[in-house]
Every structure is written in structure tokens, then in C-alpha cells.
Amino acid sequence: MTAELRDRPCRINTGIGRVRNGPSAAVVSSLRKILAVEDGTDVLSVNRDGVWLGIRLQITAGQPTVTPLSLKEREAAQFVAARAKLGAAYCTITREGATSCR
Fold it and tell me: Quick check: pTM over 0.85?
């Protein structure tokens, strides 16, 4: 415990102490891959017809490749239903002044 407390300021100064979870961790993770510091898979959000969905990317040597999910028929139907629910929710949330609702 004492060693961890002693080392904490150094970790914070190097930028890793406060970037373990949440949006900032996701950004740092993606940047590390896009800048070719490390290879791996990340899921980023993309706007598809007004609905924000995750897209899985395999990033190798800084080059992203879309790796689509292979869904069974039932899973594909659930995905389509979830997308429709998300679209309705986005429309409800952003109704005032939004251009994404149809």
C-alpha cells in the first residue's frame, strides 16, 4: 500500500493514473492503436442513419480493418430490433431541434 501511494504521483504524471476506465480510457486505447504503439481490437461508435452503433476494428500497425460480427439469424433479428429501439430513443431524446429524426 505504501509503495502504491508513493508511486501514484509518477503514474498520474505519466498520464496513466487517471485513465483506466470510461471515455478517456477508450480514447487513449484507440489512439495507442491508431498511432501504432500497440495492436489490438477496439469498438468505436459510428453514426448509421442517425443511430450510433459500435463497429469493431482490428488495428494492426496503425491500420484499422473492420471486423464485422457473424450473427446467427436470431441474433441478427435482435440486432435489428435493438437498432430500431435505439433510433426511437435518440429521436425522443433529441426531438427539439434535431435533424436526425425522420
Answer: no
